[in-house]
Hints:
By secondary structure, the chain is α+β, with helices and mostly antiparallel strands. The protein is 28% helix and 22% strand. A 5-stranded mixed sheet has the order 3-4-5-14-13. Strands 7-10-11-12-8 form a 5-stranded mixed sheet. It is elongated, with a radius of gyration of 30 Å. InterPro entries: Tad_N (IPR028087). Residues 12-57 form the Putative Flp pilus-assembly TadG-like N-terminal domain.
Amino acid sequence: MPRRPKSRRGFVLVTMALSTVAVLGVVGLAVDVGRIFIAKNEVQVYCDSAAVAAAAALDGTTYGIAAAAGAAAASPNKWNFGTTAILSPLVTFAQAPGGPWLANPNSAAGYTYAHVAASVTVPLYFLPLVVGQSTSAVTAAAAAGQISLAALPRGLAPYTAVSTNTAGPTFGFVAGNSYTIHWPTYNANRSHCRVDNPDKCFNSPPCAGDSAASLSAVVANWGSKYHGYWGSNSNSDIAAAVMDTIQLTPLAVGDNVDPLLTPGNKQSEAGYLDQRASQDTDTTDNTVAGYLASAGHNGRRLLPVAIVNPIDPEHTIVTGYGQFLLYSNGSSSDYYKKNGNGNSPYCAVYAGPFNIGSLGPGAGGATGASFVRLVE
């Protein structure tokens, strides 16, 4: 076999060496680029979850703004393969998905969107040979907001709160005040009972927060026919409706619920209202402020109901939705059983608009009901 010329000896070795360096360089670049890509995904996941948590905490108050910022900062998601916390996210708020975004708005009213931006520094091992820098800043951002809902196929309890005020999101209700969700027995034969003197038309006084206009609307248009309950009279159906908020039918703003209103079964309802209240981990606070401030509450005492306006004897119109705090007198509450004779109302404390999935009220919107989703 003829020998190769001396000038060509070692060519394969040199080629292999150069190729190895090139391959190692490409692999090294892939490692750094891969780390940047993974870090980007981790920071994006953090921003997404933090934005959703922040938006869910907004309730139209400065307390809600602070709670939203805290919820974003408390997000458990980390980066660097889940080992390193993401520090100092920038959390801002807006009244619309396009901004403008403010960290500390002067008034919290109408702020239903949260934006979270975060940045981490990724160390580089091979790219410095190419780009001349040893680290890379990786940033991500996300925005989420409370989106108004006009229709609810599920999630409402079989009760109503009456208001002739049709302006959302609170419809004239005042957070912290007590309102009727099941009306006391109407008695037209009581002395001085008139539409313009509605207090005299009930065997027991309605709840303290109900307006005179609401009482007049009930007297004029419901009378003895209805009590504000719109579920089935069956015990099993009452249990499903109160405990699991399985609705008799979907409801939407503008619907006439008059055909759905029934007398209900007060004794059965009382048992399930108490049972639901007892499932909460805070069964002692009967003020909205105290309940929401309690780290132990789990939201079971918050009852979402339709807000309605009885405009004539055959039309009771859904104008929106709200969330009400059930009363409780202890871990095995029997508050409604003790206060639920045939003549008495069932009262609950208005907490605010209904934000699906939150452990407290939402910021509202036109309908008083919302859900949280990412918008960026």
